[in-house]
Each structure stands twice: as C-alpha cells, then as structure tokens.
Request: fold
Amino acid sequence: MSHVSEIRVGLATCGIAAGAEPVYSAFEKELAASNASVKLKRVGCIGMCYNEPLVDVVYQDGKLSTYGHVRVEDVTRIVEKHAVGGQPIQDLLVATDGFFDKQVRIVLENCGLIDPESLDEYRAHAGYEALRIALTEMTPQQVIEKVTASGLRGRGGAGFPTGVKWGFAAREPGPEKYFICNGDEGDPGAFMDRSVLEGDPHRVLEGIAIGAYAIGAPHGYFYVRAEYPLAIKRLEKALADATTAGFIGENILGSDFSFEVKIKAGAGAFVCGEETALIASIEGRRGTPRRRPPYPAVSGLWEKPTNINNVETLANVPWIIRHKTEEFTRYGTEKSKGTKVFALAGKVNHSGLVEVPMGMPIKDIVFDIGGGIRDGKGFKAVQIGGPSGGCIPSSLADVPVDYESITETGAIMGSGGLIVLDEKTCMVDLARFFLDFIQKESCGKCTFCRIGTKRMLEILTRICDGEGTGDDLERLLELSEKVKTYSLCGLGQTAPNPVLTTAKYFREEYDAHIVDKTCPAHVCKALIHYEIGPERCKDCKLCTRDCPVQAISQGEGVFQVIDQKICIKCGRCYEVCPFGAIDVQ
Amino acid sequence: MFSEKGDGMLSVTINEKNVSAVEGETILVLARREGIEIPALCAEERLAPYDSCGVCVVDVEGMGVVKSCSTPVRDGMVIHTHSKAAEDIRRTALELLLSNHWGDCIAPCQQACPAHTDCQGYAGLTANGLFEEALHLLYEKLPLPAAFGRICPAPCEDACRREIAEEPVQIRHIKRFLGDKEFDYIPSVATDTGKRVAIVGGGPAGLSAAYFLRRNGHATVVFDAMPKMGGMLRYGIPDFRLVQKGLDRELAVLEKMGIEFRNNVRLGEEIALAQLQSEFDAVFLGLGAWRVRGLRIPGEDHSSVMQGIEFLRRVNEGERTPLPPRMVVIGGGNTAMDAARSARRLGSEVTVIYRRSREQMPALPREVEEAKEEGVSFQFLVQPIEFVIEKGDLTGIKCSRMKLGAPDTSGRARPIPIEGSEFVIPVAGVIIAVGQSPETDCLSGSEIAIDRGGRIIADEQTGLTKCAGVFAGGDVVTGPSIAVEAVGAGHRAADAIEQYLCGKEIRPPQFVYKHEKIDVTRADIGDVEEVPRVPTYVRPPDERVHDFEEYETNFTDEEAMKEGNRCLGCGCSAFNHCDLRDYATMLQAKQEAYAGEVMHRLPDERHPFIIQDLGKCISCGRCLRICSDVCGISAIDFTGRGIDVEVQAPFNRAWQESDCVSCGACVDACPTGALTDRTALKKQVPLHIREEKTICTLCGFGCEVVVQSLNGHYLRTLPGDNGGILCAKGRYGWQTLLSEPRLRRPLIRRGEELVATTWDEAFSFIAERLPQDKGKVGIMAAPRITEEEGYLIARLAGEVLQTDHIMVEGTSARRAFTVPRGAIAPISAIETSDLIVVVGPRSHYERFLIDLKVRVAQRAGGTIISLQGDLPDADIVVDDLPVIQVITALLGEGSGDLRVAAMQAAIVAATTPLFVLEGRETSDETVSALAHLVEREPRWRIAVLRAAPVCGSLFREGRNRREDLFVQGGACFSFGADPACDPVLAEQMRTLDLVVAMSPTLNKTTAYAHVVLPMSLPFETSGQLHDTNGRIRHFKAAVESPVAMENWRILVELANALGTDWGEMTLDTVSEVVTASMQGAPETGGPWWVGDTPDSLALAIEEELSRLKI
Reply:
C-alpha cells in the first residue's frame, strides 16, 4: 500500500450543511500537529450526499478510501491511524455500494477531485486546454461544428441542440452580442448546477468563453441565484483568477478574441430561469417572460443577439473540445448524446449527485446507483424534471433517460431533478404540492397561468381535503389542457404536467379521493384517521404521553383509544408506538 | 417590439374574406382595420403586444388557436376570428379573469329592485345636493316616485350592503324626498312614432307601460274601470300611507307627457279587447288582481262582513261612515293591516285574527308594528269557522285554534285545527282580507290564455300573451305582488312592445357581476365609519290614529344629503365602459364558471384624483405600460407573484408619493373599473354622462378636450387629442377649482359678509366706489379667459378705467417675442425634429406634454439636449452654464466646453433643429440671442411654451411689476384670477378702497372683495384663443353655465354702468374685431408672458396633491 498523499474534504454546500467545516478545521489542526506530509484539500461535492460529511483519503497512486458521516471527534483517529499510520479505520469507511459503478463523469470530471478555488489545480486537470485549442487551432465556425457534431443538447430542460443554437447567434450581424450562463436553478430538490459551480467553477467559465468565441460575443453574464452564495463566491474567485491569468479579458491567449464577464445574482424567482424573463431581470426589469419570437439569438439582452446556455451544458463544452467527437457520442442514445447529471433525491437509499450516460433505464438509476427504496418500501414512481415535470410510474421503470423517451411518458427531462417516490406517497397530494409551488412562482403575467393554476390548485386541495365532487377531475383536466396550451412561457405550459401524469398513471388514486373519500397512501389528513388495535396495544401509554392534544386515553380494558374529535392526525402516536399497534385507516 | 414593417403586401383570408395585409402587422391590427371585432383586454394601439390576457385568440388554419395581438400575419394565412375553438378559449380566459374579479357592475340595491331603479345613482346625486338630477335619474326607471317613496317595501334596502356596517341606507325615504321636490320636471318624449298603444288598467303596471312607451314617442291611451287612475295605489292604500293629491300630481306629469287617461271604462263592458286590437297597434293588459278570495264559510255574505279592498276603496273615496265599536279583521297581509288601521281611524277597536303565527304573516314587519302602535290587537293561530248571525245581526265569529304542521306548498307551516278548541269572538263587524286574484272573466272567449288562478299566461320577460300584439304584466300575470314588480313588468312589456312595433332588436341581457350579500364581510367594505340612519319623524300613534293624514314626514335637504352620503357606492363607475363586462356579455361568460378564492383588495382613495380599486384589476398591465412606455414615467409596476400579483407604486407607497404626475393616462388605459378618476362631484356616482368637445384654455397649447357634464354640472375632462394624454392641470385643474360651490349671482359686502344682490346694484356700487384717480386702478386677469374677454377687459381698462396697469396671473411682465413669426414652430413640430434643445426644468404641468413629444422625437432618432433642466435621458445635458452663454457659444463664439462642442457637432448634422422655451422663465437676453440665432441660421425654429393662451388683446405696455400693481386707496379688478394667492399682492389688497372680483367660485381674493361678480368657466363659454402654435382656435361652450349673464356681457354691462356706451354688441361682433386684430398682428412671434406670480390653479392642484400625501 502506497503512502497517503492527500486528504479531501467535501466542502460544497451539502457538506458544509452536514458539518464539514469544523471537520476540515480539525484536519488542519491535527495534520499540522502530526507533521505528516499530507496535503489537505477542499473539494466540491463528492456526490454521495447521503454520507456527508465526506472525507477521501487519497494514496499516491490515486486510489482512495472514503469516510462518511465524519465527525470532528473522528479526525484525530483518521489522521493518526490512517494518514500517518496508513491503516484505514474500517468502522468509519463507507461502502460506495456501486454508487459510482454505472456513472460516467464528464461534467463532474473534477467535482470532488480538485480544489475549486485553485486555478492551478484546474489547469493541472487539463483546465483551459480546450479554450487554448479553440482560440488557437479552430475558427468559431469549427467550434460550432464540433459542438453540433457532438450532439450536445441543452441541459436546462428543453434539449435544444447547443451547436445549432450557437449557430443562430453567430449568424446575427454586429459586434455587440451577449453570452449568458443560466445558473438560476430553481427546481425544488435540484442542485446539479450549484454543485458544478461550487465544485468546478473554472470549467463553466471555460465553457462560456469557448461559446462566446464561437458566436462572437464580447460580453458574458453569469446569472446565478442569490441563494447560492458559495457558488457565486467561488465563481467570483475563479473569474478573478482567470482574468489575472489571461483566460478572460482582452486578447485572450494572444488571440483577437476579447471577452469580459459579469456575475449577476438573481433574486430567486423561479420564472427567471426562463430565458426572456432572465434577460428582463438582468436589464433591471421585473422578471416576466415575453413572447418568442423574436428569439434571444435575434434580440436578447439590451435587444442584442444573445445566447443562453445552462451551467451543465457549458460544463460539457471544454470536455467536448478536448476530446474526439466519437468519445462523446459513444455515450447516450441516437438522439441524446453524452451524459446527464441528476440530483437524485426522495425515498431512495443513496440520494446524491449522479452523472449517468443518456439512455440508462430509470430503474438502474433508482436501484443500482440509488441503492433502492429506503426502508424496504415499494417503488412507486419517479418525479422527473422538477415541479413542472411529471411522474413516471414504476411500471415504466425500463424507460431510458433520454429526451424523447421521457417526453413520451408525459413528463419532461427538465434540468435533472429526479425524486424517487415510494408506496407511501399520495400522488394527488404530490400534484397539489408541485402546483402550489408553481402558483406561488408564477410571474402572474398571463391569465391561464396566474388564475388557471390557482383554480387547479384549489380543485386539488379540495380533492385532498375530501371535498372533491363528481366533475372536479374532469374540470381539473380540462383546465390543465388549457393552461398547458395557452400559457405564455414554459412555466405555465408545463405547470399541469404533474397533474396530467399523475392522473394518467394513478387515476384510481384520484377516484379514491373523490368517490370513496379515502387516501390510499394514507397521506391526506382529511381522509385518514388513526386507530389503536386493542389486541396489539400493550398499554405502555407512550402514545398518550406524546399526543400533543391529549386525544388518547384509557379505553375499556387494558388499551388506549383515540378520541377522533380531538385528534389532529399529526401521526405522532403512529411514529412512537413500539408495537405497531396504531393503524392508519 | 413591433416587428419591422416591410414593403411587401400579403394576401390573407380572414373570416372567408380575402384581404391584403402589411408584412409585420399582427392579426389583431389587420382585423381591426377590417372592422372585425376581436375582444382583447391587454392589447392597446399605443402599446407593444403584451400577450397576457388570452382573450384575443383566433383560429388560424395550420396553427390552431393563437393570440391575435402578437401573431404576425403571413402570406396565405387563413384566419377564423370567431371559430368555436377560439371562442371557447376566449370565454375560458374571460371566465378565469371574472373568477378573480371583485366588484359589482351594478350596485346590489339596483339589482334587487324589480324596476331596476338606480338607487346608488339617485342616493349619490342626493348626497351631492343635486336633487333635480337625482329626480331625473329616478324617472328613468320609475314613474310616480313620490308614491313609491311612500309605499314601496324597498327590496333595495334589504340588499343594501350598508347593513354590514350598521343599517341599510333609507333608499325609499330618499326616493320620497325627491318625489316630493316640486321641480315641474316633465320627462322628455321622443318624436311621435305614429304608433298607438292601448293600456288597460291604470295601476302601476299599466301606468309604467304607458310611461315608457310614451317616452319612446308612441301614443298611449290608458283605460281604467275606476273613476280615477292609480289602481290599487289609489283604491287599495289608505291616505295616511299614500296621500291622493300627491298621486294626482304625479299622474298629471304623465298627462303632460301626452298620455291619455280614460276612466270609467271597463274591459268587456264599455270596451272590448277586439275593438282595442283593431284601433290600436298594440294592447297592454295590466288589470291587476281585484277579485277577492272569500273564506267560504257560513254567514260570509252578511252585510256586516266586508271585503278588505272594498272597504279600503270606500274609505279612499272619502266615505267616513262609522263602524261598529268592535271590529275583527281577518287576514295577515298588508291589505289586512291597511284595513285594520283604517278601521282604527274610524273609531273602532280592532282585532286582527290570523290562522298562522306572527312569523308567517305576509305583511311587512313595519306595517304590523305600526298597527300595533295604533292599538290594533292580534290573535294568532285562530281560524274562523262560521259567522254567528243572531236575528239577522252579526254577533260574533266562531273560530278554531290552530297549531302549525309541516310546510305546505307556499313553504310556510300549514295550520291545523286543534280539535275541540272552538270558541266565539263576539263582534258586530268584520273585514275579510285573505287574498285577491285577477279578475279576468272579461277575457273569456278571447285568444288569451288564462290559468286556473285567473292569471293571464304571458312571457315573463316580454309580457307577450298567446295573442299577437297583446301583452300583459303586473298582478294580472303574477297574482298579487308588490307594486314595484308591476313597474318592472310594465317596463319590460314596453320594451317588448317597442320591439314589436318598430322591430328594434332586443339585446341579450348585459352581464352583471354580483356578490351575494352573504359573501361580503365587514372587512370587504373597508374602514367605513359607522353612521346611524338619519332619524325620520313619525307622528305619535295616539295623534295619528284620529285622522287619515300622512303620518310620516320628509327629510330636509340636509338630512337627505346626509342619508345619501351613507351609500357605500357598491356599483362600479365603469359600468358603462368596461371591456370586461362587454366581452362577458358578448361571449355569455359566467361569473361562477371557475369560482374560487377572489383576491379582494379594498379601494385605495388616497390619490387626490385617481381611485384604485384593484379588486377589479385583471392584470392586463395597460396602466403601467402606458405610464412607462408612453408617458415615460414608470410610477407603477406589478408586485407579487402568482395570484397575488398587483399593480403598485414602488415599495407599496401610495401612488401620489411615487413619480406619478397625475396625467390620468392609466385611468384611460384601464379596460375595467380598477382605475377610475374622480369627477368634480364630492361623492362619486356612476352615471351616464354628456360629453362635449372643446379646447383646453389652461395653457397655450390649446389641446382638444372632452368635457363631461350632467345637467350643466361639470364632472370631468378627458383628453381629446395628444394620443389620449393630458397634463394634470388640463385633466384635473377644473375639478380642483370646483371643490368650492359655484357662484350664480353677484355678491356685495355688507359689513363682514358677502350678500346676494342684483346685477344693477352690484354695478352701481362699483361706480360709486371707483376712485377718482384712475391711475390707482390695477387689473389682474386669469390666463385662461377667451380672447374676446381679454379684448373687452383691455377696452374697459383703456376707455373706462383709464389704466394701463394690467397683469395676467402667473406673470409679472409682458414681452414682445421679437423673432419672426416664421421661426415659430408649433408644439407638434417637436415630434418631427431631429435635434431638440429643451430649456429649463420641468416646473410646469404643461411641460409634461412637451416631454411626451420629445420622447417621440428621441425614439425616432432625434438628438435631445437639455439646458438648465432635468430632462431624463437627454443625450447632452448642460446645467452649469447660463443658457445665454450656450447660445452664444453655439453661434460660433467658441467655448472650451466639450459639451458645447458636442452640441455644435450635433447641430451641424441636424436638418430640423428646434429650441423649446418656457416663456415664463426666459430672459430678454436669451430671446435676443435666439432672435440672432434664427436670423443667422434659418434652419432653427423655436417652440414657445406659454402659460397662457390669451395675450394678443391684453398685450399692452404698462405698470407690470407685481410690486406696484395695486396702490393704497386704489382699486383692484380681478377677472377670473386669484391675485390674493400671491402674498405680495394680498398685502396690497388690504389697503384698497375697492376690490371687484369676477370669479366662478369663492376664493382667496373674494375674501377681500367688496363686490363679487359670478363668472362662467371657459368650457361654459364660446370664443377663441390664440394658441402657442399661432393658430386661432374657436370653441363652443361644452357645458351650460349656471350664470345667467355671459362673461362678455358682464364686461359690457360693467363698462356701461361705469359711464360709457359701447352701443349694440353681440359676441359675434366682438369676435370679428378680435379675429381681425389677431390676423393683423405684427410679423413677430407675438407677445408672451414671463413671470413669477403664482398660477392659482397650479397652486390649487399642488395643494390638493400635497394635502393627501401621507
């Protein structure tokens, strides 16, 4: 076994939230005290969010051991025994359980590997090599051709071929053009873009510079939501370092190409992920979409030709330029090439950041990478594409993740949120939840989105409350179709997707709520009640003590009963009962 | 962005018609040009497509349903604007908008009134003291207002939302108050149509039908079986509730309208239906319900057993025969109450027996209460079984006690006799009032269908019977009901007869948004201060029970106004110009289709001129886009997300604290009632109003305006040109001034007080007090008088007062504009100039309109230079060099300043350079320098912004410094001005022997005045003005003046009274002289005014704006 050369602490937002900063400080202190010649490094998201804080102990040959759930008090042992003594501490190591086996890391190539705040490290991993190749060996047209040939499609959701989009902006005359990187990742549960910006900011910066060269834009903008302060901070540092090093600025790498970049913090409006709303926001106006055409490629920021790509799309670009086209196109399906990063979340054992080749069946992501459903529950569906995506039921788990296949199910690929749902999820309640989000984030400009989604939400709420009536579902679906067709922008046009897909695949759940007044998943409070099975109750009174409203008292005989008039259906008794004596009906 | 327009013409098919279209234009623009109406709420000609409302959708072959406002036409496009699919989406969009709309189109009181009387309208006009106008409004829906003001059970008051605060507005009593005002009002009658309609029955239904038909110009003859008209109003309601001479007075109004009354003619006896059908073009049957329903019990035909309506008829005909000392009235309706109370007045003890309990009584609670007060006793749950006749005399009523069972068909609990409970009430006289039904035997044998209850079967909406040309309405169709129902039926039938006679199309019923009273909470009516009902005086029961005189008295004027002011104003001001309502009607959209939570915001009335009722907002964004894209102000924008989006000033401040300039453009842009502007009325009232065009005289631009008025009362001003934009002064100036009541007669000072006097006395008073030393007279005229008035003032000054001390308010000096007239450009030239130099800050309202035009020029590529000013977005700004220095530099004298160099470069490139000057603020030196400039550089032109249109006639050299306008012991003549606004002049005025103020209202100057002469406002005057563009503009009075003598005539009379004789004059002769002198003016730019005395109107607006700032 070779010597330990490096210790990497995952210090993306996810790691920090789990307590990685004190762990890092502890390593700093312990390593200094130990005099070991081991390098301590901050890295971005390692991917296994379910094990944060994560620490990789790396050997000189590149092999590594991973510690998970690391606490400050574990650090001394890790340093003494492993870093210095070379002996891994078995009880602290985490098994990757195949988490990485089926992944292909292009976008996440450096994530968790390099120090995101170090330009040198980035350069040591072929950083800015692609920019050099583009500027010195290729014409803008050749860059566009190569990206087009790679088959890269927009990872923000719509999946428009990136090279073709660049071609539109490149074709527009005039020297004033803009290239915008859309980092306004707004889907609840999605953190792909944040992780990339936090873990490998130079990569995105290199991508935007290559793109700007391709379309001939001297100005660039990063539009990153203000809720991502660490991403903004690292991006700012990367921009400053890259400018100093001459990768951004006047006559980059001695070429004729000059490019300046600004970072704009968005105020966290979901709709500002829509490109025309995003442009309005940068211009200092209220972030509301407008009709296209004219497309931004013709008239965008300040009415100048503008190209907008999302973070993940741009993070692919340096890799594509550095490699042969076939190396990229060997991944994926006929129409969807390369990989896709997903934020895997929900009721899955291994939640985290994953990158898979396009075309991988959903079930492989859920079971092989995600490690299956938590607590041994049944797999019910995945919600893909964020709040305006849709549900794909477990019966379609063989569907490969590529743009066309996902769209065929009624969902959308979206930007890469993948929420796994188990049998305890109420699909009506889920649709209600996402619609509530959409309604609150609608910019309110067009009637169908502003009022239509509100009325849909009211119907869903009514159904969840057990007050649904005969024609509610019909009315909901009718309104869904109209909102989908006649809303102005993507937000409204996709808002009904959760409703339409859940109604398509789980219609019986709607009927159960409306007709039978039951919630099969036992989620909707108005439709459930808790009861204590006298034969299982051991009269331990744990439930009685924990009930916040004193609804549980002694029954006739030796067991407890719940007074349904008082019960607020908080489920506390169900959770605390050690004997499983409480039933949800 | 509008798409660039190419030259190519396209061929498009729209609604099966081939038309040519311009490349780049949208489907909506094309359709409107072709006269095809596509409903659209967010689209507006002046604004770029916005794509939000979703109402303007059309069907395009191959594209499906698309928004017409933003879809450009393409060659070969086939468009169907009203396909089923498009209409479905359009209706859905409207219904979604309606689902989040809070606001009744029509007030609930009016909706509740079966005759649809505009309760909010007449209550509101009453609150404003406009009693005559209120009565006119009442007569629009209701003949006989005084009668209904007494007897109507007032369903309006049941619906009145004021009850949520404390108690409903006393709408009925206001109606009575108005009806009793003897204004000699005869409702107008349209030109004779030659059609004749017979009305059978002179009760509420018949009279109403006759009235509305007569108003439309048809000849109407009312036949009635009784000796006098009025039907049940006359014969069924005793005098103490409805005095007959009041009814006679109101019937006389109908006769004066030309309605012919023929009494003592009974259908089926004196005249036959067939005869009426042959002699008249249509027949209306309003026979009422006069047949009494008997008890069908033994003894009922005894002579001491009377029928209620028969008894009441006799009493109403004046019969005062004493009754037995004890009487029983059987029944629980209003007729029973009237009979019981009448019997009390004839001296009997009265007991009412009723077979159910008090709660089930159909009589109004108030009637029951008043009967009780008057000593009527009640026995409930008692049913007569038999009248006890002993020796031919009635001695008592055998009754059974009852209990209540299950509800019957009427919904009330069915009374069931209690076995063995029989008892006898000893009594010698009985009145039965247990119900009536129509008497329609006279129609047997005709084609008219009658139901088993004797009712005519007729269409509920139109009153049409089975017999063509014969209509019916009122009790004869419905059975006994309240009188105002019959008025509604008469009106509906009149409309249907109108259609029958003239083929007039019946429009589908208008969409009416409605909130159920039950859904409206205290929070929804806002922070309403609790004001109890104005008490009404009712004569004490022990007094009124001895006679048949009216027992209730009227409001005084003040009480009526106070009660009217309690109205919450639920109905929408935009009821007659709301696109949302019109489209909802057009598409028959349903308010409840997508019912859900409504985001209700309370009206915000903090802005002095603009009322924001954002509950009615549909988020079309027209207001804020007009504000930013057209006016360049951006005072408002959307805030919030999702359903909570609303229009707000930044940081939720009140609008008047934002950058709002009170131009009112947002109000005009609003397609609903979410933004409305105040009228000159103190209490706002939704009204149909008269509009007349005239010219705004508040500055020199001479903008066309539309003035709205009601019966001679100014209401508000709207823009007539400038692309629909006016400045705050033009739009809201007059109503600011008119917050004081108008003067109608001359006033003269007696001690501390100004008292009304005659014209002669006022003139002779002036003549007596006029100082001998003519040099001591100073004159100030308003800048907004006509050229004719200016000419007469100048003559008065020269020939009579022999003074040259004349100033125009808002000025301190006059100067000739010594540049050639050809160099003067009209204000409109700004829009087409490629280089514009704007001098000075935005210190005056009129500058707003200049800025609008500058913005147009700038968009078209013009270069804008701002000197000593604050013009936003100017290309070059110089605010630290004197204007004169810049001009000198531009003339090539040189300057080291880079900006001047930039200007010089821009000027070289310009072909139509223009200077825009504020006359008031410009020095002599600047003018000479400019004169020099235009002489050297003939490309240059100058547009002058003048505060006042009038100048030519009043232009005279003289003492024109305000510091010495008035001298001690001298006199002041103020013509429409308010010199006392200026503290310097006010100080001088204290020392004067005579102050004569001609003014439309009391103001600061009238406080000093010895004589006040009333004055008409410019929009009440005809005349001419000489506008800034050098044009002579003639205009006509848009509103009738409340002052009997015209302004020019007052000036002539004044001159004559002061010892001159101007001979025979007419306004025309004055105008001719003035026009001639204008045209003969020297070839210069003419005079203009400079100055620093305050413009009283601008001050008043500022005050109004600042007063309400919080």
